[in-house]
Every structure is written in C-alpha cells, then in structure tokens.
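Following the same procedure, the fold was encoded as tokens, giving this record:
***
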Amino acid sequence: MTFSLDDSGTTELTSSEREVLGWLEFGSASRELAHEVAGSGFVPDVVVAIARGGLLLAGSISYALGVKSCGALNVEFYTGIGERLPDPIVLPPLLDESELAGKKVLLVDDVSDSGRTLKLAMELLSVGGAEVRTVVLYTKPGTVHEPHYTWRRTSQWITFPWSALPPVTVEAEAVQA
C-alpha cells in the first residue's frame, strides 16, 4: 500500500482496502458534525469522549459548539488491526457519572464498528440519569448501536490521521537517524 497527499491535504490510499481520513478532511468532518448536532436542536451540557479514538473529535466538536465542559471515558476494545477483546472494558481513570445526572451529554467516538463500545458507554452514562446522544465520524454496517449523528458510512478498515503512523519511541527515532 502506498500513501500520497493530494492538493487539499487529504491522504489517499492507492488500495481500496482502507478508508483513509486526512487532517484537513477531519477538520471539515468535525465541523459538519457540529452543524448536524446544532441543527437537530440538541444542546449538550457536556461533551464526553471515548478515549482514545474519540478524544480529538470530541475536542473539535466541543469548540465548534461552544461547550466548555468536557470529559473522557476510557474504554478498551481493539487491541490491534482487526483484533479485539471479547467485550469492551472500562479502564481507569473513571469518569464520575454521578456528575452527569440530569445533563445532556454528547458522547463522541471515532467509529461505531460493532457498536459495542458506544452501547456500553451510553448505558453507563444513561444509568446515572444523563440524556445521551452519540456522534461518530464513521458507522459500519452491522453496528449494534446506530449513532445519532454520523459523518460517513463504510465497511472498510479506517486509517485515522492520529493513528496512521507507528508510536514514537526512542528505538524508532534511533533507526530513522
């Protein structure tokens, strides 16, 4: 597979096996999603990211909507490309769901693949009395949770700009030098 950067700054993949999102397209997508949320009449009191994939989108949408109250819920499900745990698990530090009782919460993630992570997070927040709506960049077929707001639908594996490159390590830097 090869990557190239087009004139708009969008990364393109020459193989049809992946959906590739570039940084500039991410900015446009997050703004479009914010317009969709605002246009629906839902005015969140709090934006909650599902970490790690939803962190950047949640920050972008919270700025676009003017929502200053943000939080994160750490959920692990994927352990690698196409590899996941039997069930999603919540990791520390934990979000204090009691602080969200009676609040309108916009729950944000990068993708609703199986939908099990979003479903778990939505249940955790709703049990505490929050009104929760979900927003994602991508929704895949067969998800068990259909997000309230979706930018695109795809059945392909998605390469996000924040996870396209391997982690930075001392060893990797030494090899590049």
